């Protein structure tokens, strides 16, 4: 997708309910980049969706990262916030998002803040 940001997601961040399959090697990459298939089954309906618009990297710079084309998925999230149209450019904006993940701030050996969740509420 020209002119927009792209997501490179760690393989470990892909939900266990999804199935990531490594397919053939991308020509000219020395077997370090592979085409892939990402499949997910809807737990409620049992329907399965998949996309082959996936690249799996095993290079020094992109070790164990997966690139999924943005329009290939029904929904993307940054933390708990849905993303529409395209991913945001992290070099041109700073977003503060609500998160259900725990947050811990450390300065050397001091811990000035820690919380169960991050919230933008005032």
Count of helical regions: 0
Uncertain residue segments: none
How would a crystallographer describe the biggest sheet? 5 strands, antiparallel
Sheet-strand content, in percent, reads 35-45%
Helical percentage: under 10%
The strand line-up of the biggest sheet is 1-5-4-3-2
What is the average of the pLDDT values? 80
- How many β-strand stretches? 9
End-to-end distance: 36 Å
Rg result = 17 Å
Which structural class best describes the helix and strand composition?
Answer: mainly beta
Shape: globular
Number of domains: 1
**Which series of helices and strands comes N to C?**
EEEEEEEEE
Protein name: Phage tail protein
Structure explained in plain terms:
This is Phage tail protein. With 122 residues, the protein is mainly β. The chain is 0% helix and 42% strand. The protein is built from no helices and nine strands. It has strands at residues 8-10, 18-25, 33-41, 48-57, 65-68, 76-78, 81-83, 103-107, 110-115. The strands form three sheets. The chain has a five-stranded antiparallel beta sheet, with no helix packed on it. The radius of gyration is 17 Å and the shape is globular. The termini are far apart.
List the keywords.
single chain; about 120 residues; mainly beta; five-stranded antiparallel sheet; two-stranded antiparallel ribbon; globular
Summarize the structure.
By secondary structure, this protein is mostly beta strands. It has no helices and nine strands.
């Amino acid at each position: 997708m020209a002119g927009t940001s792209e997501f490179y997601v760690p393989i470990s961040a892909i939900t266990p309910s999804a199935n990531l399959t490594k397919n053939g090697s991308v020509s000219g990459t020395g077997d370090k980049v592979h085409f892939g298939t990402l499949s997910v089954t809807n737990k409620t309906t049992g329907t399965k969706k998949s996309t082959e618009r996936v690249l799996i990297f095993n290079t020094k710079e992109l070790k164990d990262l997966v690139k999924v084309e943005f329009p290939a998925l029904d929904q993307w999230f940054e933390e708990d916030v849905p993303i529409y149209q395209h991913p945001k450019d992290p070099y041109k904006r700073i977003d503060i998002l609500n998160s259900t993940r725990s947050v811990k701030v450390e300065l050397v050996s001091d811990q000035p803040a820690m919380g169960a969740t991050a919230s933008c509420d005032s």
